[in-house]
Amino acid sequence: MDKRIGDLATAVAPIFDGAVVMVGGFGNSGIPAGLLTALLEQGARELTIISNNAGAGEDGISSLLREKRVSKVICSYPRSPGSIWFERRYEAGEIELEIVPQGTLAERIRAAGAGLGGFLTPTAYGTLLAEGKETREIDGVGYVFEKPLAADFALIRAEAGDRWGNLRYHATARNFNPVMATAASHSIAEVRHLSGDALDPEAVITPGIFVDRIVEYGVRP
């Protein structure tokens, strides 16, 4: 039951070419920076990235885009300050984009983690985002049917973890990270503090049953 991994490179070693990878974080909070750097060095290609945004600057998701490791992005905000690499790849026709409203993105991921077959939401009804999707009217309100969104791997960041994979988050790093951990076949967590002793059960946000590998990375993005 000891899920501790000695280094970042070993933690991301199972990620294969063509994998669907969820990346936690919101803005600059809760980004698994160490795991993303290790994934860049690992060399996996043709990745589908599921994240709130498409990165910014030269690090993290942006570095994968820069090195042409990503074939598709599923996110809410593909364009943010400094997101030059997504824009360049998209304008060159080198990458596919699926836009998902932020609340819908979170709920699609949650639905996958909960084993649900999908859900109805009024968000995007009557817009281009609803094209090709099943719609329904209930009590005079239009709804769009959204399918669950799962992944092969989830890369997540937490403040603390223990040998069993239980996780505790710091403040707003508790954004997409907990829900993504439930929706992937294989979840890999980097934590600022990794303990051989059990975390206080009352403080655990992500139970270890959802985490397959955990590695310490003390740098706080």
TrEMBL record:
Belongs to the 3-oxoacid CoA-transferase subunit A family. InterPro entries: 3-oxoacid_CoA-transf_A (IPR012792), CoA_trans_fam_I (IPR004165), CoA_transf_BS (IPR004163), NagB/RpiA_transferase-like (IPR037171). Keywords: Transferase. It comes from Paracoccus saliphilus. Gene3D superfamilies: Glutaconate Coenzyme A-transferase (3.40.1080.10). This is 3-oxoacid CoA-transferase subunit A. It holds the Pfam family CoA_trans. NCBIfam families: pcaI_scoA_fam. SUPFAM superfamilies: NagB/RpiA/CoA transferase-like (SSF100950). It comes from the Bacteria.
